Amino acid sequence: MTRGFLSDVLAKWKRFRWQGLVKVWAVFMAIALVLLVESLGVHYGATRFDITYLDRAKAIPAANAIAGQKATNLLVVDSSQEGVSDAESMLDRVFLDMKVPTVTVDLAQDGEIPALKQYQTMVIAMPNLDSLGEHVLQIMQWVKKGGGVMFAMTPEKTGYLDVIGPQIGIESSTYEYVATEGITPSEDFMLGGGADIHVQ
Length: 200
Fold this sequence. Notes:
Elements: H1 2-15, H2 19-40, H3 62-66, E1 73-77, H4 84-97, E2 102-106, E3 121-125, H5 135-144, E4 148-151, H6 159-164, E5 182-183, E6 197-198
């Protein structure tokens, strides 16, 4: 009886037209079973991290951390110009947070810029560069020798800007502000560089 049943099943299997599909299904089921058995033996856990915070009494304020260090940065401002005092206070905070020893020169009071060879970087925070006077040529020579200068405020169109404009990448300028539809940062400048950024 058992032999007759098995031979009857084999005969039906040979006549079954979807044999290939059943074989593929059986292979997938076998793979699923193997993966299930393997995952049962895998246990996930989180690593515990112990973070030790510095005692407040031992923490050194940023002002104390840079106290006594030789200034490597020169901040040049003209407090008589509008908005410069606000920019100066913001930059002071930035330099303190970055722990960059900085000397500030106010051209409205001092009128003179110290020898630049003792500094590595300079930040000019004033819109009208006429206050720099003949120091513009001194700054240009210093930059050519490796010094780094940054303009923290957008320079206004003046004769002095025309002198140094080509040196800092300004191809043309006008006395009026021009509305722009967008900018295209270079590819190596930031994420998304090379694509147009439209101004609404």
